[in-house]
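Hey,

Quick one before I head out. I ran the complex with zinc ion overnight. Inputs first:
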Amino acid sequence: MKKRMILMVTGFLSCAVTLLAQPAKKVVFVIADGIPADVIESVTTPHMDAIAHAGAYFRAYVGGGKGTYSETPTISAVGYNSLLTGTWANKHNVWDNDIAAPNYHYPTIFRLLKDQYPQKKIAVFSSWLDNRTKLVGDGLAQTNGIHVDIAADGFELDTLQFPKAGPVHRMHRIDEQVTDRAVRSIREQAPDLSWIYLEYTDDMGHGYGDGPEFYGAVKMLDRQMGRVWEAIRYRQRRFQEDWMIFITTDHGRSETDGRGHGGQSPRQRSAWMITNDPGLNAYPELHTPGVVDIFPTIARYMNITIPSAVDRELDGVPMIGKVSLADMKVNYFQDKLDITWLPLDAKENSNVKVWISTTNNVKMGGADQYRQAAEVPLRQKHITISVKDRSPGFYKVVLEGAHNSLNRWVVPDNKK
Ligand SMILES: [Zn+2]
């Protein structure tokens, strides 16, 4: 009995020590609408530079696999949902700003967090109401009734506080309100996972194209990011919390004049990321990350376990922690799958398991039947697998490395 008491006390103490040793991990991600990388790089942005100085700035992409089954329109809500779900549009099923029928079987990062840590607080700060009500799916049966704890959004619809006939820069004033609310909430409530969405840059891009009005909007965004960064630093100093911020965009703009977007040209697919995190892995250095990579990065940072069924659908690669492989390609020819990948660390001595499924039940909320087709050294970088005995047409191929998994689909006729 006495011995047991000691064990219990020791257990309690080590528990308490662990709690003390691990500061709370908080994440803010910001989507600033419609800014190609060349613009963010050419405008003077001292506040965002300071954040990047603490961590990193790098170019990124949106739009999925150009010309493949995962090609994704470079449209706003489509891009947000690629970030939220870590998947491209062929999975999350948001194809335009109508958000007609999102496939909630691909959970958002908010859902993943809440499923494992129901006590953690999530927040959405946004001009646009749909971001919370349709994309995150606040209170919907399809999202298991996820509850967004802190919301300051829908200001676009508020014609009393923000009259439409009022100043030209109505959307800037709304973004200021969104920023004010986010800053106050970060300082006072410190939500565990926050999404700040800012829209004015896209308005100026559409209205004026490349030029001083658009660049001016980016400078205003920079000052807003300075305020958010100050709020984060306040929490870090005062409460010893760990904070990660990612600032990114949902799409670039047209080559011709910067007004439009939606297509697959290089500048419309052009994005970027800024983070304060000093501990990025080699992946963003050696590859060009996609907006889908933020989901697994946040999951790792917040110690969220990604269920295997979700992991096998994720189109992103974590940008922190150990990563085994990236840049997976699958080419189908004559009943064979030719699969290639690139190891992140040439010295990693591990194996890659190749899993193949011919079902797509996840789309309907079910489970796919995977069979292990091979196990090969990571360093080999390729394998050709005969699929003659399998039902032809549709294949999901998953490469399971020691530290991360990748997946690609083979779709008949290369159509969605
Ligand atoms: Zn947009």
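The chain has two domains: 22-311, 325-410.

Talk tomorrow,
K.
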